[in-house]
UniProtKB/TrEMBL annotation:
Superkingdom: Archaea
Residue ranges of domain HTH cro/C1-type in the record: 222-242
InterPro entries: BAT_GAF/HTH-assoc, Cro/C1-type_HTH, HTH_bacterioopsin, RNA_pol_sigma_r3/r4-like, WH-like_DNA-bd_sf
Stored Pfam families: BAT, HTH_10
Organism per entry: Natrinema zhouii
Key word Transcription present: yes
PROSITE patterns, alphabetized: HTH_CROC1
The protein, known as: Helix-turn-helix domain-containing protein
SUPFAM superfamilies from the UniProt entry: Sigma3 and sigma4 domains of RNA polymerase sigma factors
Stretches the record annotates as Disordered: 21-42
Keyword tags: Transcription, Transcription regulation
Amino acid sequence: MADELVSIDIADAEEGIEGVTDTDESLESVADANEGRSSVRSEADGGIVAQLRLDHPNLFLRPTIRHAPAVTVEPDYWTSVEPGRTLVFVTVYGTAFDDFETGLETDPTITDPVLVDRYPDRRVYRVTRTDRATTFTAAITGVGGRLLELSSSRDGWQVQLRFADRDRLVAFNDYCRDRGISVTVDHLRVSDDGDEGVVALTPKQQKLLTVAYEEGYFDVPRGISQDELADRLDVSKSAVSQRLRRAIGELCSATLS
């Protein structure tokens, strides 16, 4: 099932990114041009940015995420404190913290959850990842990719990744397929420094920004609140907040960098 979804989605998405298969040749040309100036191999030109949704019953924190769909979870960082023991710090946005903590109590992918900080709109937790958790972050690095964003979705995890070429994206897809992790492609684009002003907004981000702009969210005073936007789009307030932040961040990155 996962393989079928990915094959269809990647094929469809690639209609809009002509020339992706020539990325390796572009990289070689850049390397040739830079020969003699630096011994550092470059993968900075070209490449693919992929917005994916990943799901598997045993993905890290997935049982808790399904139990508390009204919150948004973003891993801050993780570290191995001893062989076989990995601590993960996550920030949880929203208000349904009781649901999130109830989910933690029975989640087989983590143990020893601790609330380490709290704010009006978010909380920070530390958990220990168990060996029952299915993971994918190491595989991203293993195939030569880079993790740009990672946050929870109603169906597991949403990730934004950059790969130097299509083969590495396919290698990551193969890794997920072999482990039963379903992959849905939301968005693909060519990563090219020459494409200034091209913004990699997902369809959901585009829809949210369109509604927010048309209804006066950016006016002073505001014509619509985040709560009203959430009701209009039938999503949680935390999802609206995070989606707005990422979309505005993409806009700033494309126009100010």
